[in-house]
Amino acid sequence: MSVYRTILERRTIRRFEEDKPLSMEVLEKMINAARLAPSAANLQPWKFVVINKKELCDKIFPYLRWAGYIAPKGDPPPGERPSAYIILIADPRINKSWQHDFGAAAQNIMLTAWEMGIGSCWIGSINRKKIKELLGIPQEYEVDTVIALGYPKEKPVIEEAIDSIKYWKDEKGVLHVPKRKLQDLLHINGW
């Protein structure tokens, strides 16, 4: 699959085949893609924590907020929760303005996952303090975001945004994701 096609097809997934674990080999491939992401001055201020034990996945879950527009029905129900998480950790001692670097790393993880048939959900609305405590992350590091992972159990669809960009579910439970039109966003050689 080409990178462009992967970008066009990838959607955020919030329903997973919880009983299908992800191998460490697959998870390491995602981390390898993340570590190769562009980084300001090539400082690479990141660390990654992989969570793939069911008991620990269950402990992380309450510290994540899912699908704000459609919560709580957007939350993965029991039996459809992620089988793994990647926690993106910043070392601000290396670079105090690390946020852009983490966007590139997260995108590399999610595109690599999708290429392998794995769904992902990048979550920024998290309880960083509780996650840090649970995982024993040293004080000098900062929890950036969490990427939930698993084999998809849903197929969200994109549609043209007309009046709203808020995603929604139809009567069959299909998630619809409105996207703004290219011609509404693109300016060539000036505004």
Explain what this protein looks like in three dimensions:
- It is a single chain.
- This protein is an alpha+beta fold and 191 residues long.
- The protein has two domains: 3-155, 3-Layer(aba) Sandwich (NADH Oxidase), CATH 3.40.109; 156-191, putative fmn-dependent nitroreductase like fold (Single Sheet), CATH 2.20.180.
- Helices cover 29% and strands 20% of the residues.
- The strands form two sheets. A four-stranded antiparallel β-sheet has the order 1-2-4-3, with helices on both faces. It has a three-stranded mixed β-sheet with strand order 5-7-6, with no helix packed on it.
- Strand 6 and strand 7 (175-179) form a beta hairpin.
- Helix 2 packs across helix 4 (99-115).
Task: Give the helices and strands, then pairings.
Blueprint (H helix, E strand, L loop, with lengths): L2 H7 L14 H12 L10 E6 L2 H7 L23 E7 L8 H17 L3 E5 L4 H8 L6 E9 L6 E4 L7 E2 L5 E5 L2 H4 L6
Parallel strand pairs: 5-7
Antiparallel strand pairs: 1-2, 2-4, 3-4, 6-7
Helix pairs in contact: 2-4
Short structural description:
The chain has 191 residues and is an alpha+beta fold. The chain has helices spanning 3-9, 24-35, 54-60, 99-115, 128-135, 182-185; strands at 46-51, 84-90, 119-123, 142-150, 157-160, 168-169, 175-179. Helix 2 packs across helix 4.
What series of H and E elements makes up the topology? HHEHEHEHEEEEH
Level-1 CATH class name of the largest domain = Alpha Beta
Mind telling me which CATH architecture of the largest domain this is? Answer: 3-Layer(aba) Sandwich
- The portion of residues forming beta strands comes to 15-25%
Label the overall shape. globular
Overall strand count: 7
DSSP helical segment count: 6
CATH names the topology of the largest domain as NADH Oxidase
How is the largest sheet built, in terms of strand order? 1-2-4-3
Class from secondary-structure proportions: alpha+beta
| Count of separate structural domains | 2
Mean pLDDT: 95
Low-confidence runs (pLDDT<50, min 5 residues)?
none
CATH H-level homologous superfamily name of the largest domain:
NADH Oxidase
| Estimated radius of gyration | 17 Å
| Biggest sheet descriptor | 4 strands, antiparallel
Cα-to-Cα separation, first versus last residue = 34 Å
- In helices, the fraction of residues equals 25-40%
